[in-house]
Structure prediction request, 87 residues.
Amino acid sequence: MQLRNILKTLSFKKPENKELEQIILFIQMNHLQSLTEAIEGNPGLLYLCHKKRSLLYWCSHYNNTKAHMVVIQLIKKYPKENSVIAA
Prediction:
């Protein structure tokens, strides 16, 4: 409840599951350009979990080593302390 109030105060919107599902679909379909653009548009998505699994898990689940490397590069580019969940 407090997190929800903090997000309202900061006027940030928590990303919907649809956004995260779309990114996982990009991983599954090997759309690396779309994956990169979606995450660069909202770096906070890197650190969210879908079904209690991280993006790195989904890369290995779909055996997509290229997407795995892209996600690691983006994590290095956008460290967790600098990421802000924005819509």
